[in-house]
Amino acid sequence: MASSFGVVGLGRMAQALLFPLLEAGLVQPGDVRAAVASEASAEMLRQAHGLNVATDPQAAWSAPVVLLAVKPQQLEGAAQAAAAGSGGLLISVLAGVSLERLQRLFPGWQCVRAVPNTPALVRAGLTGLAFAQAVPAGQRRWVEQLFAQVGEVYELPEIQLDAFLALTSSGPAFVAVVAEALADGAVAAGLPRLLAQQLASRTLAGSAKLMLERNLHPGELKDMVSSPGGTTIAGLRQLEQAGLRSALIEAVLAAAQRSRELG
Fold first, then answer.
1. pLDDT the model gives residue 50
2. How far apart are CA 62 and CA 31, in angstroms?
């Protein structure tokens, strides 16, 4: 790991990556130089995690590796603050912001686009990576190893990152809505709320595990549990009539398009 690790914008996505690394001892709290927008947020993070957090980003930009996790509309301001740094490796998790734009705004830095997702908090994340041409092989491996600590890593052509984001970063919210709706249905059918929520989450987790470990196509799992004239096929008919499949497809497409617009 680098001798110090700068974080500019320690919001939810940056925390989803950083906190598991801290818990695993791969990054030491004293090595983190973080910058946030408000003093209240800085004080909370200092008290809760023992981190070196400030509202002045200068210290963060002096680190040899910086994780850039500000809002896209704050990008220009971050670039102005970065000009005081000496350059190094810049890992951006900003949705939609291209490598070409990053390299133009941060000319002294070697830029990486990363698309992690929130299951990184429990080390079950998925991260898509795209590297600027100037990033050497050794640093590419280091970045891959960094994100591998919190889940699986995929190096992709940059043109595919918006779709990757829509599926894997927005996807947990879509899955959460499905889980909540399944639990609501179970409550309507007579189960207690807490039990229904636990069973809905475990059903989704178990189904995903079965498909992955048995290398099943989703349609195969659907057919495995759909007997003629049975309960499952009756429920599936309702899902088709309600347009669930189309709604999920359009949700992913909308998220991908929004990622492109943010860039």
1. 82
2. 12
Backbone phi, psi, residue 131, to 5°: -115, 140
Residue 112 bridge partners (DSSP): 91, 131
CA distance 124 to 118: 9
Instruction: State the Rg of the chain over Cα.
Output: 21
Dist CA 126 CA 83 (whole Å): 31
Is this structure's pTM higher than 0.85? Answer: yes
Q: Which two tokens stand for residue 31?
A: 């090595």
Which tens digits make up the pLDDT trace of 32-56? Answer: 999 888 888 888 888 888 888 888 8
CA–CA–CA angle 92, 98, 101 (5° rounding):
95
Check if the beta carbon of residue 69 is closer than 8 Å to that of residue 15. no
